[in-house]
């Protein structure tokens, strides 16, 4: 009986244990789906294996590049009338088999590439969150593996879409994302890193079902408009493959969406009271075309406070923030309705009309290049600084691996100080917005800058006034500053922003019933509108595009129309810029840096360098000239101006003692004078003022010589030697006395 009971107990324990492991292993199996694009490349999306405690988790894989994305949303809402979405994209060195090169050997603050990719993902997801969703939500993209062939950013967008779709977080997705390249007149879907380096187009398209565009981001090598429009259509079509696959994965493994509490709304009586006190007065403000940004804002702020005070008398229990939030909704509604009713904008312009433009170049003599560009109340001050290639921006190892770029010889830094909008604030590290605007302006101008330019170019753009589209003003001002600096750009570039005001139905998809496209938008038109569509390029074609869409997707028709309107406005701006400066400056400025090539004989390189490179450092400190090697015998001299170059060349001449040495004939016999005895041989000279050359012990005599004194050699003694040219590596002369003794015998 005891054995039977023990057996049954053990059997039951093993059965429970096996059942536990079986259920655990079953739950850890990944549920996978494959997205097949038209060119045969595949994206795998899986769930259920990692991070199962998160609200949603998905792993995206292309090739050997895998990214895990998690989505978590808090259960309690926050205050405010915006969606508190946080996207963190982090590059892990371990995923690429690397160790970080910083002091702590670990990942520290976010790099520029990580921030720009986070913004790319954020802009693809944010428009599809429902209105009044005030729950803090975080998307974390964690790189598991990187193969240096496939870029992880497209994988991250699709995996983030899958994670949100699979979660119980309310979200009206999914979206699909693809990258479109253009090589040899062929469009390539999700090109590899090497293919992208050869591509004249880098277009990222995020779209949802029914071919609705959610986000666009592009840089192009001055691409023609018809080719660019076709690329957008292809990208939207290919994105549908990812959308349909994520929908299938959501139906089979997704969680039911949670219900969320909406903020307490005002009573009908309070809403009517606020509307009656504000609507007519708001219409008068927006019809007054003489108001500028500050005066219009002051009028609206005064009205807001007046309405809040009067409402408090009739509804003393209402909070101030609740009243002002609803007043903001009324303001937005009145502003948008007035555009359809008046067929004009709040500043009196037609829908396709540009603001007044003023531009000027060559503002300050010490600057290599400078320009100010003003469009309405948006003003930017741009400067160009030219320096040596040693000043090129070095990228971090993981960015080098994923992008293929080791350094940048052209970069743009964008600054947006608080006084540009009459505000106060801290001046410190760049925010995500400033970094994104600077990257967009840099992409817009990069195709026009020569890639073989002998200098590193730093372009700065400081926003002095801002009332909409400061990044596109930076493109215009930056192009003028480059021409003022004499940089031989292929063509001037300009940029413009297109806005959108729509009338939509009440559905969650917000189907568009009517719309108006606005050229060269104001800040208030961007804030109250549904789209910020920025396009830059030359007269010939397009160099960059960025579309931030606030609706849950736009039809291709509106996107195509926006491209056409932006291209027309861009051409008009270029005509105005042409009147200011038509082409790059031909006559160099006095302070323009110079570069010259220096040839140094191998045996004189030690004279140029000095001990530990002390001579090069001395030249740099005294003149500002930087000397860098090109090859074994050639050096590049960079000097900040011609005067510094002349001073540096004078020092170099003294160091090298450029008195020309007589040409020695290979195999010739010469009389050498001993100037020094050493343990390994003797130092001799063949002609006056010649640097001493070593005659090694092995070449002194037919016998084995341990020290020159064994042969009675003295300083000042003359002997015949044979010349065998110079060593190809060290550049030292090769001499021999032994071969003459052998021939004499």
Automatic annotation (TrEMBL):
What domain of life does the UniProt record list for this protein's source? Eukaryota
Q: What UniProt keywords apply to this chain's record, in alphabetical order?
A: Nucleotidyltransferase, RNA-binding, Transferase
Q: Which PROSITE patterns match?
A: KH_TYPE_1 (PS50084), S1 (PS50126)
Q: Where is the signal peptide?
A: none
Q: Where is the S1 motif domain?
A: 667-738
Q: Which GO terms describe its biological process?
A: mitochondrial mRNA catabolic process; mitochondrial RNA 3'-end processing
Gene Ontology terms for molecular function: 3'-5'-RNA exonuclease activity; polyribonucleotide nucleotidyltransferase activity; RNA binding
Pull one GO CC term from this UniProt entry.
Answer: mitochondrion
Q: Could you say which EC number(s) this protein's record lists? A: 2.7.7.8
Hey, which family's this protein in?
Answer: Belongs to the polyribonucleotide nucleotidyltransferase family.
Record's PANTHER family? POLYRIBONUCLEOTIDE NUCLEOTIDYLTRANSFERASE, POLYRIBONUCLEOTIDE NUCLEOTIDYLTRANSFERASE 1, MITOCHONDRIAL
This chain belongs to which protein, by name?
A: polyribonucleotide nucleotidyltransferase
Source taxonomy: Eukaryota, Metazoa, Ecdysozoa, Arthropoda, Hexapoda
């Amino acid at each position: 009986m005891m054995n039977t009971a023990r057996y049954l107990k053990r059997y039951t324990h093993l059965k429970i244990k096996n059942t536990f492991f079986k259920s655990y292993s079953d739950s850890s199996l990944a549920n996978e789906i494959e997205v097949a694009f038209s060119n045969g490349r595949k994206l795998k999306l899986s769930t259920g294996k990692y991070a199962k405690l998160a609200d949603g988790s998905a792993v995206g894989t292309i090739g050997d590049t895998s990214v895990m994305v998690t989505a978590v949303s808090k259960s309690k809402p926050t205050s405010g009338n915006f969606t508190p979405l946080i996207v963190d994209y982090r590059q892990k060195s371990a995923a690429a088999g690397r160790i970080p090169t910083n002091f702590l050997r670990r990942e520290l603050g976010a790099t520029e590439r990580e921030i720009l990719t986070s913004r790319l993902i954020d802009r693809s997801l944010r428009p599809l969150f429902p209105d009044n969703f005030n729950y803090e939500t975080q998307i974390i993209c964690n790189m598991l593996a990187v193969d240096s062939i496939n870029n992880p950013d497209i994988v991250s967008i699709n995996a983030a879409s899958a994670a949100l779709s699979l979660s119980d977080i309310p979200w009206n997705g999914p979206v699909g994302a693809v990258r479109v390249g253009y090589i040899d007149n062929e469009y390539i879907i999700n090109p590899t890193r090497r293919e992208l380096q050869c591509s004249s187009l880098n277009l990222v398209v995020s779209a949802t079902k029914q071919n609705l565009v959610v986000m666009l981001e592009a840089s192009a090598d001055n691409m023609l408009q018809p080719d660019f429009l076709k690329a957008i259509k292809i990208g939207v079509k290919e994105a549908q493959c990812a959308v349909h696959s994520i929908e299938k994965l959501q139906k089979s493994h997704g969680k039911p969406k949670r219900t969320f509490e909406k903020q307490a709304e005002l009573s009908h009586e309070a809403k009517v009271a606020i509307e009656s006190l504000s609507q007519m007065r708001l219409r008068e403000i927006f019809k007054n075309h003489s108001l500028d940004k500050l005066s219009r804002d002051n009028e609206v702020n005064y009205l807001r406070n007046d309405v809040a005070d009067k409402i408090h008398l009739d509804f003393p229990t209402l909070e101030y923030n609740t009243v002002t939030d609803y007043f903001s909704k009324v303001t937005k509604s009145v502003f948008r309705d007035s555009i359809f009713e008046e067929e004009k904008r709040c500043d009196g312009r037609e829908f396709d009309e540009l603001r007044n433009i003023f531009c000027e170049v060559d503002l300050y003599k010490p600057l290599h290049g400078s320009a100010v560009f003003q469009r309405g109340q948006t003003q930017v001050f741009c400067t160009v600084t030219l320096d040596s290639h040693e000043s090129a921006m070095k990228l971090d190892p993981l960015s080098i691996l994923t992008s293929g770029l080791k350094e940048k010889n052209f970069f743009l830094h964008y600054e947006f100080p608080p006084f540009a909008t009459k505000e106060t604030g801290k001046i410190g590290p760049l925010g995500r917005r400033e970094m994104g605007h600077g990257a967009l302006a840099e992409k817009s101008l990069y195709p026009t800058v020569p890639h073989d330019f002998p200098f590193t170019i730093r372009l700065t753009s400081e926003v002095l006034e801002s009332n909409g589209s400061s990044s596109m003003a930076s493109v215009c001002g930056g192009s003028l500053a480059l021409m003022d600096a004499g940089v031989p750009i292929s063509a001037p570039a300009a940029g413009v922003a297109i806005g959108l005001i729509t009338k939509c139905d009440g559905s969650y998809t917000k189907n568009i019933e009517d719309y108006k496209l606005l050229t060269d938008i104001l800040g208030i038109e961007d804030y109250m509108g549904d789209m910020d569509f920025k396009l830059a390029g030359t007269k010939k074609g397009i160099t960059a595009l960025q579309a931030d869409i606030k609706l849950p997707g736009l039809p291709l028709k509106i996107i195509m129309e926006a491209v056409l309107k932006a291209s027309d406005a861009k051409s008009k701006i270029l005509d105005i810029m042409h009147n200011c400066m038509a082409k790059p400056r031909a006559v160099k400025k006095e302070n323009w840096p110079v570069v010259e090539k220096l040839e140094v004989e191998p045996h004189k390189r030690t004279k140029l360098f000095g001990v530990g490179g002390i001579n090069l450092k001395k030249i740099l400190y005294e003149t500002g000239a930087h000397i860098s090697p090109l090859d074994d015998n050639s050096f590049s001299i960079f000097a900040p101006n011609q005067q510094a170059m002349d001073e540096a060349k004078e020092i170099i001449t003294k160091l090298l003692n450029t008195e020309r040495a007589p040409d020695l004939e290979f195999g010739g016999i010469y009389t050498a004078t001993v100037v020094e005895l050493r343990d390994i041989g003797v130092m001799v000279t063949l002609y006056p003022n010649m640097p001493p050359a070593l005659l090694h012990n092995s070449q002194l005599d037919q016998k084995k010589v341990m020290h020159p004194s064994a042969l009675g050699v003295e300083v000042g003694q003359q002997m015949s030697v044979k010349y065998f040219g110079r060593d190809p590596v060290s550049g030292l002369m090769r001499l021999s006395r032994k071969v003459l003794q052998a021939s004499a015998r």
